[in-house]
């Protein structure tokens, strides 16, 4: 049987186009590099490194869907290659959020009244700390689906981070109205009321949260903070003791920089409780 010289020639020519593509990409001539990598793949569809190089250039051009397809093709061709796994992981670590944003925007362009797309786009923006974009998407999701509490809660959490507790309270009241068993909703509403000085309202919300999750460390810590601000020392120490029993190291780290406990700091019973092992 004769040697498959035609097939071997294609592989050689494929490698030449691949090398030429690398040179062009290094010079920043990305469109030309793409053409070379495509020629390499056309000549040798099993060339994993050509697919991988094409993926890299697509990624630089922010063509994330195309880049993902090429990375996955390279991995499929060489499933045991650590480099293929590594390159895909690097792409995902670097561009997963960008790719998600691109796809959510495509979904919204195809269907502007798609509340979940707006919600998830907002959450992705929030992860990137692009706050104004995130808030805009959460508001769009709320407008499109007024009965969904999640977008309201996400927007409220952003407002709490910014110190806009009044705005958060309005949203969180709707969250717990729509979803009365929402523990995090009651907890955040209590925190927001406490920050605005509405201590009785905060206590009522914490009582609702306690019905749902009485042993949660965050609940007991925030109850303790409320009673400390309210100058109800015995109640504050009782709640703080419960929090310390649950996660002592974490609670002590919170206490170290929390001004809400300034009224208790220095008191013998507080110092004894905090220092107890």
Beta-strand segment tally: 0
Q: Can you tell me the CATH superfamily of the largest domain?
A: Tetratricopeptide repeat domain
How helical, in percent, are the residues? over 70%
Order of helices and strands: HHHHHHHHHHHHHHH
Number of folding domains? Answer: 3
What structural class do the secondary elements suggest?
mainly alpha
CATH class of the largest domain: Mainly Alpha
Q: What Rg, in angstroms, do the CA atoms define?
A: 28 Å
CATH-level-2 architecture of the largest domain: Alpha Horseshoe
Task: Give a nutshell description of this structure.
With about 280 residues, this protein is an all-alpha fold.
Describe the protein in words.
There is one protein chain. Helix 5 packs across helix 6, helix 8 runs antiparallel to helix 9 and helix 10 packs parallel to helix 12. The protein is mainly α and 277 residues long. The protein is elongated and about 90 Å long. The longest helix has 29 residues. The protein contains 15 helices and no strands. Helices cover 78% and strands 0% of the residues.
């Amino acid at each position: 049987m004769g040697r498959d010289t035609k097939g071997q020639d294609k592989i050689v020519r494929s490698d030449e186009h691949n090398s030429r593509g690398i040179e062009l990409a290094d010079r920043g001539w990305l469109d030309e590099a793409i053409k070379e990598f495509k020629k390499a793949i056309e000549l040798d569809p099993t060339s994993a490194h050509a697919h991988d190089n094409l993926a890299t250039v697509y990624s630089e051009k922010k063509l994330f869907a195309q880049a993902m397809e090429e990375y996955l093709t390279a991995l499929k061709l060489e499933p045991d290659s650590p480099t293929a796994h590594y390159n895909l992981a690097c792409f995902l670590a670097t561009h997963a959020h960008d790719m998600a944003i691109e796809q959510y925007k495509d979904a919204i362009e195809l269907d502007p009244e798609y509340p979940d797309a707006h919600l998830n786009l907002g959450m992705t923006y929030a992860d990137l700390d692009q706050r104004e974009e995130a808030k805009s998407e959460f508001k769009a999701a709320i407008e499109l689906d007024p009965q969904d509490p999640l977008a309201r809660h996400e927007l409220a959490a952003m407002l709490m981070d910014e110190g806009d507790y009044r705005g958060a309270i309005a949203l969180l009241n709707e969250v717990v109205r729509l979803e009365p068993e929402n523990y995090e909703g009651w907890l955040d509403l209590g925190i927001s009321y406490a920050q605005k000085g509405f201590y009785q309202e905060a206590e009522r919300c914490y009582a609702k949260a306690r019905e749902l999750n009485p042993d949660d460390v965050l609940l007991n810590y925030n109850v303790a903070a409320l009673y400390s601000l309210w100058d109800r020392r015995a109640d504050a120490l009782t709640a703080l003791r419960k929090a310390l029993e649950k996660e002592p190291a974490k609670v002590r780290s919170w206490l170290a920089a929390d001004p809400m406990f300034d009224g208790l700091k220095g008191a013998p019973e507080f110092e004894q409780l905090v220092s107890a092992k």
